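Changelog note: in this version the structure field was regenerated for every chain. One regenerated record is shown below for reference.
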Amino acid sequence: MDLRILQEEREFQILSKYGTKSRETKGRTKSEKQCDIRTEFQRDRDRILHCKAFRRLKHKTQVFISPEGDHYRTRLTHTLEVAQIARTISRALGLNEDLTEAISLAHDLGHTPFGHAGEAILHEVCPMGFKHYEQSIRVVEILEHDGKGLNLTWEVKDGIQNHPTKGKPNTLEGKVVQLADKIAYINHDIDDAIRGGVLGEQELPESCVEIIGTTSGQRINTMIRDVVLSSLHKPTICMSERVKNAMITLRQYMFDHVYVGSRAKEQEQKAQHIIVQLYEYFIKNPHLLQGEFQHMIQAQKEPIEQIVCDYIAGMTDRYAINIFCKIYLPTSWNIY
């Protein structure tokens, strides 16, 4: 019995007419024999979950660089919260939960060490520029699996590529992730900022709090419910103007008081200095790059600047710091 076929048939019975059906995928760049148990989107989710880039997210900055406490979010916990919110919305709307989860888990695979500070400085020093969502595509197409990539379906890659605000996902599942990303980071960043003493609970805009709630749980619940009720039986994913405007105002408040110029960002210049120094060092010494990056150099299919950028973008915060220290800080000399 082919269990995959049964699952595919079940999707046509239980999913909304707007949900993306696994059987109707546009497929993979390289054709593969299908699994007899899992649908194509389930296979993608599993490949992402087991890849090295996903594991490295646990030591990459969300907002607070190398925080001392264990309760601050990392890029991995952010990803898991996005996936939970996105799955809830997709399930309520009758969309494909497997596709939604796969996009969610992969959307930040290309993020640099030190969060958006790392992304900004790599964009500045690399001749080809740098955007984390474009790097996420490079991770799943080229860098993972020893240069073979993960060979994901078109729909998952489309959702990854288009998850930023300016993106235009071609599936409703991709649009769900796009909104879930904002719902997640606005709320967990508020939580972390309050924990870190950067914000006080009473400092949030009163007009926003009145609409979407005073606690993280209330705000997330309000936003999720609003997305579901506003999008139900529609070929789009949207929010009511009232809640959408409150979310936009709250997001701008976070940029003004946390993301730019706050105590949470005091270490950014140091972090960016580390990345610049590592970039310049490995441009001059490409023979010191590790593993698959040496194979990329020997293949000579891409400029050295791109390969060094790939190498640094894949680092965790602590790995970047350790490599920097080994290169630029003296160690004790011992004759024994």
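Spot check on this record: The chain has 16 helices and no strands. The two ends are 67 Å apart (CA to CA).
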